Automatic annotation (TrEMBL):
Protein name, per record: Transcriptional regulator, TetR family
Keywords from the named record: DNA-binding, Transcription, Transcription regulation
Record domain HTH tetR-type: where: 4-64
Alphabetized Gene3D superfamilies for the sequence: Tetracycline Repressor, domain 2 (1.10.357.10)
GO MF term list: DNA-binding transcription factor activity; transcription cis-regulatory region binding
One matching Pfam family: TetR_N
Record feature DNA-binding region, as residue ranges: 27-46
Lineage of producing organism: Bacteria, Bacillati, Actinomycetota, Actinomycetes, Pseudonocardiales
PANTHER family named in the record: HTH-TYPE TRANSCRIPTIONAL REGULATOR BETI (PTHR30055:SF234), HTH-TYPE TRANSCRIPTIONAL REGULATOR RUTR (PTHR30055)
Length: 193
């Protein structure tokens, strides 16, 4: 088995352990046991906790809206296309909310540990860059442009999506979350031309 395959399996195992037992329970021994690998495999694949946490956060970034990109139509009003995109985001989020919760907790932990402190800033930059790419794709497929800077709009989108997700973890009310995203779509559409 290649090191790349082992890394993927260890990352998946770490996420399973964290979802089931919490971040503190994700020791190298527990992760290797979950992956059905000898303990030494962990240190063969990862040099540090930071490297594992970066791999986990990268996995979260790569499983976002990419896999569920909706059908966008230039024949529809901007608000309908924005709603479609936000609905696809929410559907992807709802597919595994516990993984999203673990990744959020991981970012919070990283803010407190000196060796991991650069991870939250890195993750935020990556999310904003991904949001810019999604905004570019949405504008291209829907046939509109934005009346504000895309990087600033991406910051707003990331903040709103994080906020709605955080609120949902508190109240677990899917209708309220969707209503919030729907209202944001209306406001978002005013920034298109």
């Amino acid at each position: 088995m290649s090191a790349a395959v082992r890394r993927e399996q260890l990352v998946a195992a770490a996420l399973r352990v964290m979802k089931r037992d919490g971040i503190a329970a994700a020791t190298t021994r527990a992760i290797c046991a979950e992956a059905d690998m000898p303990h030494g495999a962990f240190h063969y694949c990862f040099r540090s906790k930071q490297e594992l946490h970066t791999a986990l956060l990268t996995t979260g970034l790569n499983t976002s809206l990419d896999a569920a990109w909706p059908s966008i139509s230039p024949d529809l009003p901007a608000v309908d296309n924005v709603r479609t995109m936000l609905d696809a985001f929410w559907t992807a989020f709802q597919a595994d909310p516990e993984a999203e919760l673990v990744l959020g907790e991981l970012v919070t932990l990283a803010r407190q540990e000196p060796e991991l402190r650069e991870l939250p800033a890195w993750q935020h930059r990556e999310y904003v860059a991904k949001a810019v790419a999604h905004l570019d794709r949405l504008a291209e497929e829907a046939g509109f442009d934005y009346s504000v800077d895309r990087a600033l709009l991406a910051e707003l989108v990331v903040s709103v999506l994080d906020g709605v997700a955080s609120s949902w973890f508190s109240h677990r009310d899917g209708e309220l979350a969707r209503a919030s995203l729907d209202q944001f779509a209306v406001m978002f559409a005013t920034l298109t031309r």
